[in-house]
Design goal:
- The chain is built from 7 helices and 14 strands.
- The protein has a 4-stranded mixed sheet.
Length: 317
């Protein structure tokens, strides 16, 4: 029900308002980078960044934590991001985890409403906007805040410019769509169905079962990320999407922060050498045969954090 979504949202908003009243008193250093919001659903070749420090950065961070609606001129389907880091004198992990749990409660309320209305998962954003307002942005509302109860020695901000996204399409649905398209083309062009492009594409998946899946690859817009070095290792201990400022502990030894630079597509032409090569199934629709998925073995952090694999905090922390 919409009322459940609204109730969950109000609890989330109130928690962040109270959090915003408290964390600036613990902040010893704050730096963020302001990015321009996109006015069309297309990634530009260059993205300039503006560094903010001190009280200006704190004000920008407080606003970003509560910015769930699109800005004036912000194109639908685009996201406001404010990468950065907030150094605090004492940990805020418990408060951040509470906020993230409230975000999950909003997500659960949206999903429950979708189930009650018996509509497709793609309708979730529409359900959310009906309950909260037409300018609300799903990603800005539900994305988590990151916090580490540890003092890093180095944080590197950079761009992930060649990240690829994937989604899975059930073969039965693909087959049904191609059959309909083949029949439509045959009727439109006056040719036998077996001579259509779609029929030939059907032949490429003829040996696949209806409940198997094909992989649809899509390009993801460049987005900032942060690599945190918490140990003496030469490789990073955690890499996060830098959608919002991350909270970390300050220390007497200090922490080197390497600035986020302007994004320039012309300087990022090389793709990662470890990208897997997939066999084409239906190239016209960017559909590929699934490759064997290798289990990722990540390094478990020895510090409490919101990061995947982090150690939960002790009771009472």
């Amino acid at each position: 029900m919409q009322e459940d979504i609204q109730k969950a949202y109000q609890a989330l908003r109130q928690a962040i308002v109270h959090f915003n009243e408290d964390w600036p008193q613990l902040a010893t250093r704050c730096v963020v980078w302001r990015l321009p919001v996109l006015q069309e659903n297309k990634t530009p070749d260059t993205i300039p960044v503006e560094r903010l420090d001190g009280h200006v950065a704190i004000a920008a961070a407080k606003a970003a934590f509560l910015q769930f609606e699109r800005e004036v001129g912000q194109a639908p389907g685009t996201v406001m991001r404010l990468p950065g880091v907030i150094f605090v004198s004492s940990g805020v992990l418990g408060r951040v985890e509470q906020i993230n749990a409230l975000k999950q409660a909003v997500k659960d309320a949206i999903e429950q409403t979708r189930i009650e209305q018996n509509v497709q998962p793609a309708i979730r954003p529409r359900i959310m906007r009906r309950a909260l307002g037409k300018e609300f942005n799903t990603n800005q509302l539900l994305r988590s805040i990151q916090s580490f109860d540890a003092a890093p020695r180095l944080i590197v901000f950079t761009w992930a410019g060649h990240t690829g996204g994937t989604e899975y399409k059930v073969v039965a649905q693909v087959r049904e769509q191609l059959e309909l398209e083949a029949a439509a083309r045959a009727d439109r062009e006056g040719v036998p169905v077996k001579q259509t492009v779609e029929y030939q594409e059907l032949r490429s998946i003829v040996r696949m079962a209806d409940d198997e899946s094909l992989v649809k690859r899509k390009l993801v817009a460049p987005h900032p990320r942060a690599m945190l070095y918490l140990s003496e290792s030469t490789t990073y201990d955690a890499m996060i999407h830098a959608n919002l400022p991350v909270f970390v502990l300050d220390s007497e030894d200090g922490c080197e922060v390497r600035d986020l630079k302007d994004f320039d597509r012309s300087n990022r032409t090389a793709e990662r050498p470890d990208c897997s090569k997939a066999s084409e199934a239906v190239p016209r629709k960017s559909l590929y045969l699934p490759t064997e998925r290798k289990a990722r073995v990540g390094r478990k952090l020895a510090v409490p954090s919101t990061y995947l694999g982090g150690v939960p905090p002790d009771d009472g922390s």
